Amino acid sequence: MDQPPHSRLFGTSLGFLAGYVDTLGFIALFGLFTAHVTGNFVLIGAALADASRASILLKFLAFPAFIAGVAVTRLMVLAVERRAGPSLTLAMLLQWALLAGFMVFGCLAEPIGKDVSSMAMVAGLLGTAAMGVHSATSRLLLAHLAPTSMMTGNVTQIVIDTVDVLRGAADGATHARCGKFFWPLLAFALGAIAAAFAYLAVGFVALAVPLILLGALIVVQQRSVRPAVPAA
């Protein structure tokens, strides 16, 4: 399994990406959560109770789209690792392709009206599938990092460790864990803020930011696993 050469770089960057994509999807597509997909259950409940709320079908379909992203990633990683291939690089490439589809179909759907058009539906499902790949990659290939798309656990761990620091019971591992969980959390928050302003400014083109970021990570990862060329 190919591991990222810079854990903090990957953890922080992927946290920013998840916060960015989740917020952009929420603002652009009728409150759709792409990364925090279980949040859609809350919105489905609200929509079922209030018939005036729109886009319930998109939120219903988001969950199987997320599951499909996770399942495809799992099967791909198993197949690639049997051949000792670059599983992390390929998983990130799959996420990049799905995010690119999210941006393209989102741009085709603009301007977004009160109803969910077919293009907006495809865009939302591609975005949710992309974050399914993101979550599966985090669990399967980046388990040594803090979670980058679900921040509730990160907040819980940071508070627990901070309490131990304040009461003088923290050791070196506690301090290291604080940094491990803090930076993705901060990056997620910054990504969420950046996405809100970027979408309001340029629409779905704002997804170019996470695409560039993820592309840079793919390049870094690919260079780290490239075999050294022997000297002549």
Automatic annotation (TrEMBL):
<feature type="transmembrane region" description="Helical">
    <location>
        <begin position="24"/>
        <end position="49"/>
    </location>
</feature>
<feature type="transmembrane region" description="Helical">
    <location>
        <begin position="120"/>
        <end position="142"/>
    </location>
</feature>
<keyword id="KW-0472">Membrane</keyword>
<protein>
    <submittedName>
        <fullName>DUF1275 domain-containing protein</fullName>
    </submittedName>
</protein>
<feature type="transmembrane region" description="Helical">
    <location>
        <begin position="88"/>
        <end position="108"/>
    </location>
</feature>
<dbReference type="InterPro" id="IPR010699">
    <property type="entry name" value="DUF1275"/>
</dbReference>
<keyword id="KW-0812">Transmembrane</keyword>
<dbReference type="Pfam" id="PF06912">
    <property type="entry name" value="DUF1275"/>
</dbReference>
<feature type="transmembrane region" description="Helical">
    <location>
        <begin position="187"/>
        <end position="220"/>
    </location>
</feature>
<feature type="transmembrane region" description="Helical">
    <location>
        <begin position="56"/>
        <end position="76"/>
    </location>
</feature>
<keyword id="KW-1133">Transmembrane helix</keyword>
